[in-house]
Structures are given as structure tokens and as C-alpha cells.
Model the fold of this input.
Amino acid sequence: MKGKDKVRVGIYLSYLVIISIIGAASYFVNNILDFALSVLALFLMFSPALIRKDFRADFPSLIDTLVLVYLFLGTYLGSFKSFFEKIWWWDILLHLLMGINIALISFSIIYRLKEIKTHVQLSSFMIAFFSFAISMAAGGIWEIVEYLLDTFFGFELQQPHPDTMIDLIFVFLGSLIVSAGGYLYAKYPRTNMIELMFSKEEIETLKEDHPELKKKKGRPEL
Done:
């Protein structure tokens, strides 16, 4: 195991222990919200692994890192350390990162399906559009979940209704940024961009299927 992999694994294990302890403590003191957030954080931590298993794709550490950063900022600092109350723009930042993360994961899945399923024919625009639409849908679903938790369980996840629109706007911006970049990547793929999206094993497979990717210059087309 390489040095950077050891560091990454160490960070993951540390965060796993922290969230597990917080979740267990929240359960015993009957803090339903923090317990639910802990369970959600643990599920999201392992979501990239579940995606890899279902789609036979070894997604890169970039996605794992972004998910972990989002969870650390949202659950540990945001909820457990009360950054949402202390810093007015913290919730906005988290919704921007939500849009980026979901759009990036969606793009990776759709692009991977295009590569392994020969009958799936999608243009660069449609790949970017579906990534954007999935991210926006996830943002809308999350706002509905917040509303239901506030209504039926007395939480205070949402402030006045304009807060919901601001959240969705920043999910929109994050989704738009990734979708625009994804469109350019799908239409004009570069080796260095491919290295961001896929592992070394996946890159070798792509190079075997598309010899033009071995070129160091130019704009090879997939």
C-alpha cells in the first residue's frame, strides 16, 4: 500500500470511529437527529464502494475524498460542532458541495455505462444533462425530507421558505459546474482528465478499447 493510500485509509478509519462513537452516544441519550445523521454519514461513506460493486467500476479516490470532505463538513462540523448555527453561510456551502458531489458521481456512473454497454448511445450533452438532472432531483428530495422531519418530528432543519430556494439555487450551481465540465470532458476527453475519473486499471482498459487515448497531444475522440 502506497503512502498516500495509507493516509487516506487512516483518515477514513478515524472518521469512521468518530461518527460511530457520536452515533452510539446520540442513540443512548435519545438524540434522534444526531443518530440519524450518523447513520446517514456511515451509509454515504460506503456509497462509492457500493457503486463500484454494482457497476464494476473502480472509481478514483477523488470521489471518495469529496464525499468524505462533504460528510466531515456537514455532519461533524456542521451538526455536531454547530457550524450551521455559528456560520451563516455554512449551509449554503454544504448545498453547493452536495450539487457537485452528486453530479460528479452521476456523471461517472453514466459515462461508465456508456463505455461498458454498447447499446447505450448518449451524446456528450445528454450525459451532462442527466448528471445535472439527477443532482437537482436529489437536492429537491433532500429539501422534502427536511420539511417532513421539521413537520412531524419537530426538527429545525429548515428556516423560512426562502432558505429552501437558496439551498436549491446552490445545488443548481454545483450541479451546473460539474455538468458543464462533464460535457467538455465527454466531448473532448484528455488523458489527464481521464486520470481524474478512473483508476489506473480502468485507464488501461479504456486505452485498449480506444488506442487514440495514448496520444499525449490533441483531442482524442471516444
Observations:
- The radius of gyration is 19 Å.
- The chain is about 80% helix and 0% strand.
- The chain has a mean pLDDT of 76.
